[in-house]
Sequence to fold (279 residues):
Amino acid sequence: MNKFIVSLLGFFVISSACHRDRFNLALPNTDLTLTDIAYGDDPSQKMDVFLPANRTVQTKIIVYLHGGSWYTGDKGEARETAINFQKKGYAFISMNYRLTQMPTNINPAQMQDIKKALDFISNKYLQWIITGNRICLFGGSSGAHLSLLYAYKYPEDKRVKAVVSVSGPVDLTDSNMRNTVFKTYREAFVGCKLSDNREAWLEASPSNYLSENCVPTVFIQGTQDNIVPFHQVVSAYNLLKAYGVNTKLLLYQGVGHDLSEENPEIFSNLENFVDSAYP
Fold:
């Protein structure tokens, strides 16, 4: 066979395969998992995407931010939770963000990462066949703090409809947060000591932005948390309720900062909350 014809046939086979892969990506009748998708140029700006079967452009999105004191952690910690929500019909996206291992990655670097990730997701809604503006931010520990901070600080981002905090600090200035190691991590996140710039610490605290404009929120906290005093979330909950915000508080008696043993119940409560928090 003529070499030109062979090359031409090979081109069409490759083109057809590439086209088929792109087409399959958009098929909504089966679930689809995409890992290490870059939403920005920094090596930390990656996400894992869990798309459910039978999704539509109305399928809700849960964006998860991992814990680790802003210094460590990885999006992979949420894989089991992601699969559970994927099976329930949600699009679950677990994102990495810039960590304070690099001293330049202080607040608001993580806020910028969240916005960049949400912009990326919104631009993918037709390809992934999910909603572009029905998003719940969900985090654990420092990831919960980042979720609350973004949701409350930027109410103009109407894509965020709800926020879920598991063991998340609300007020970084709280003198009752006596864990000395966590104090060091807080200083690394804010970029200074509290005594040097209290205003910077307030700007980095979700409690500074509580108002009637806050999105529906659920706080999940253990009463024996030795890192984040549970009275923080009780105070935030009470204030949000006074503002008329749809808010839930789930306290686990005698449980510490790690709520992993309560995961089945937490998963059920989160599903109920996301279902009811916004249409």
